[in-house]
Structures are given as structure tokens and as C-alpha cells.
From TrEMBL:
Keyword line: 2Fe-2S, 4Fe-4S, Biotin biosynthesis, Iron, Iron-sulfur, Metal-binding, S-adenosyl-L-methionine, Transferase
Region of interest called Disordered, as start-end residue ranges on this chain: 323-362
Name listed for the protein in its UniProt record: Biotin synthase
Protein task: Catalyzes the conversion of dethiobiotin (DTB) to biotin by the insertion of a sulfur atom into dethiobiotin via a radical-based mechanism.
Source organism phylogeny: Bacteria, Pseudomonadati, Bacteroidota, Flavobacteriia, Flavobacteriales
Residues that bind [4Fe-4S] cluster: 54, 58, 61
Keyword Iron: yes
UniProt record similarity statement: Belongs to the radical SAM superfamily. Biotin synthase family.
Pfam families per UniProt: BATS, Radical_SAM
Metabolic or biological pathway, per its Swiss-Prot or TrEMBL entry: Cofactor biosynthesis; biotin biosynthesis; biotin from 7,8-diaminononanoate: step 2/2
Gene coding for it: bioB
Length: 362
């Protein structure tokens, strides 16, 4: 078995990323086989439980209220709507439901209570439950854990250096703090990033160093290719090539051997052969459903046909870690603290974000 290292340097990771593709693929596939079943891929369903109207300024995101995009926002879904969607996802082969809310951070109150009930409901369907709700405190992480949350997603997005060219409404350290709060519970960590935002290969390596030097490393690392949505600051970015995606997946696999590497946004831009190369390079999870939060995604039937062609099996839930117990609201030992944490707000000017904010609808 290849050892888990927490001391990767940017130079080492960059050297791996730049290797000839055949060498890189050979090594990554070897590491993948030592730590995972190469014929099993987890299918997850991403549900946008609260869409749009977000106060943040993430330069890639159509859900930021300040940009002029065509997405339709919605208020928080109800528990029964979420349950119905989770049952559909389960029936079509998903073992995990990831619920995303376009919030800067979680606030204690009725909406969070409702999310906790959604977590309880899905965990009782024997599916892994993941949430991505923005920044959270330790108390909120503990309450999610008590409800039966399996994973919390909080992406680093890119390197610390490039982060300030993408987002000005919070800092890289806030991300690390939320990940740290999740780590104080038994909830697993899902954290990755996006390529194709104008970052350099050094930034890609820098993000992988930030993730791989966490101890323990994240149990899941989503690798997204930017979907350039009209109206966002990044609407004119060129799509990443399949070779960049393959390099990123393979490098992630080599530096984080045990991690579940998730092929996330941008799959509609990839051929089936390209996706197969990513699986060979170590990707072992996809998101199913015709939408990924707000951007297009291959439909489930297409994915199942690809699985059939490649002889892949969907991964069962709770293979990596036992199912958490759900504590009912009435039996909870934890109370909301009503904290008002002072997450940072650097507020520096990012020219393309400013331009997209002041532009009319494109
Ligand atoms: S990525 Fe998340 S935090 Fe950033 S604008 Fe979009 S919904 Fe808000």
C-alpha cells in the first residue's frame, strides 16, 4: 500500500501533475487499485435545497445574488419534498444525497432545524447524507452529526494564493476553520475545488497541498471543471481540456490515496472516453441527475449505460464508514447556541467580479 503522506510540497505535487500522461496514469491507477475497488464508483445525488440569492461573490457561481444570471431561485425546500427526491435518487442507484443551500453561513433558527430534520429523514432511508451549507460553527457541526450527517462539504475551491482573485466576501482561513469544526465531530470531510478559473498549474498543486496536508486528509475530494455560466464573472473562461482533468484527478489520487475522488461539475463537457480515463486515473464517484445545483449534468440513464459499457458497479452506502446513529430532535442533548461568529469579509476589489456585478443582463 502506498503510504498516506501529510508533508507534500507544491514542487513535488507540481512535478507529479506535469509528468507524461502515460506515466501519470500508470502510477495513479496503481495507487487506486491498492486502496479501492477499481470497478466500483459511488453515485451521489446533489439536491439544491435552497437556490440563489446568495450574498457571497464567488466568481464562478450563478447563485450569487449580485450577478445577473438566469437561474431560478427557490426558498428552502420542505422535508417531504427532500424525502421524495431522496427516494427517487435511491431508486436510481444513488447511495448518497448531498444537500446544498446557497448560504454564506448557517444561522441557528427554523431553517437550520428543518435541515436537521432532512438529515434525520435521509439517514433513516439508509443513504449517506452530505450537506453543503456554507460556514458552520462547532456547535452546528455537532448538531448535524447528532442528526446523522455522514459528510460535510466545504470546498477550498483553489489555492490560498488564487483564492483572493475569486472571492472577496470571505477568506481561505474561514474555509479551513469550518473544516476544522467538522473534524471535531464524527462527520467526514468533503473538500475539493474547481479547475478552469484562470488559475495556474501551481495553484492547482497548491490546492492539493492544502488538502493533502490536512490530517486526516478529507475522506472526499470533488474535482470540478468550471461550467462558465453567462452573467458570472467567469462567463468567458475557456473550458478545461480533458487532459487537464485527467492530470488533476490522477494527481489527487496519488497524493490522497484513500480519498474518494469525485468527478463533479463539468462532466457534460467530457466524452464517455474522457470520463473512463478519469475513472482509470482514480476518480471513484460521480454526481447523478440532470442538474448539479444549477448547471447541467448527464442524465442518469446515460450514466448507467456508461457503467454498463465499462463494467462498473455503483458503490453501496457506508462502505468506508459505518452509518451514523440518528438522535431524534426530542432526545437531543445539544441546544443551539445562537452564536454570531465573525467570519471574515476581506472586501478587496476583484475587477471581473465588480464588472459582472455592474453589467446588465447579458
Ligand atoms: S458558491 Fe456557495 S457561497 Fe459562493 S456564491 Fe455560490 S452559493 Fe454562495
Amino acid at each position: 500500500m502506498s503510504a498516506i503522506r501529510h508533508d507534500w510540497t507544491r514542487e513535488e505535487v507540481l512535478e507529479i501533475y506535469n509528468r507524461p500522461v502515460m506515466e501519470l496514469l500508470y502510477q495513479a491507477a496503481g495507487v487506486h487499485r491498492q486502496h479501492h475497488d477499481p470497478n466500483t464508483v459511488q453515485v451521489s445525488t446533489l439536491l439544491s435545497i435552497k437556490t440563489g440569492g446568495c450574498p457571497e461573490d464567488c466568481g464562478y457561481c450563478p447563485q450569487a445574488a449580485r450577478y445577473h444570471t438566469d437561474i431560478e431561485g427557490n426558498d428552502l425546500m420542505t422535508v417531504s419534498q427532500v424525502k421524495a427526491q431522496a427516494l427517487r435518487a435511491k431508486a436510481s442507484g444513488s447511495s448518497r444525497v448531498c444537500m446544498g443551500a446557497a448560504w454564506r453561513n448557517v444561522k441557528d433558527g427554523p431553517e437550520f432545524e428543518s435541515v436537521l430534520e432532512m438529515v434525520r429523514t435521509i439517514n433513516k432511508l439508509d443513504m449517506e447524507v452530505c450537506c453543503t451549507l456554507g460556514m458552520i460553527t462547532e456547535n452546528q457541526a455537532q448538531r448535524l452529526a447528532e442528526a446523522g450527517l455522514y459528510a460535510y462539504n466545504h470546498n477550498l475551491d483553489t489555492s490560498e494564493d488564487y483564492y483572493k482573485d475569486v472571492i472577496s466576501t470571505r477568506a481561505f482561513e474561514d474555509r479551513l476553520e469550518t473544516i476544522g469544526n467538522v473534524r471535531k465531530t464524527n462527520v467526514t470531510v468533503c473538500s475539493g475545488g474547481i479547475i478552469g478559473m484562470g488559475e495556474s498549474p501551481e495553484d492547482r498543486a497548491g490546492m492539493l497541498v492544502a488538502l493533502s496536508t490536512l490530517s486526516p486528509q478529507p475522506e472526499s475530494v470533488p474535482i470540478n471543471a468550471l461550467v462558465a455560466v453567462p452573467g458570472t464573472p467567469m462567463e468567458d473562461m475557456e473550458p478545461v481540456s480533458i487532459w487537464e482533468m485527467v492530470r488533476m484527478v490522477a494527481t489527487t489520487r496519488i497524493v490522497m490515496p484513500e480519498t474518494q475522488v469525485r468527478l463533479s461539475a463539468g462532466r457534460t463537457q467530457m466524452s464517455q472516453e474522457g470520463q473512463a480515463l478519469c475513472f482509470f486515473a482514480g476518480a471513484n464517484s460521480i454526481f447523478a441527475g440532470d442538474k448539479l445545483l444549477t448547471t447541467p449534468n448527464p442524465d442518469v440513464a446515460e450514466d448507467m449505460e456508461l457503467f454498463r459499457q465499462l463494467g462498473l458497479q455503483p458503490q453501496k452506502p457506508f462502505v468506508k464508514k459505518a452509518q451514523p446513529q440518528t438522535v431524534e430532535a426530542a432526545e437531543s442533548q445539544l441546544t443551539p447556541l445562537g452564536e454570531k461568529p465573525r467570519w471574515s469579509r476581506p472586501g478587496h476589489a476583484i475587477p471581473r467580479n465588480e464588472a459582472a456585478r455592474s453589467a446588465g443582463k447579458s
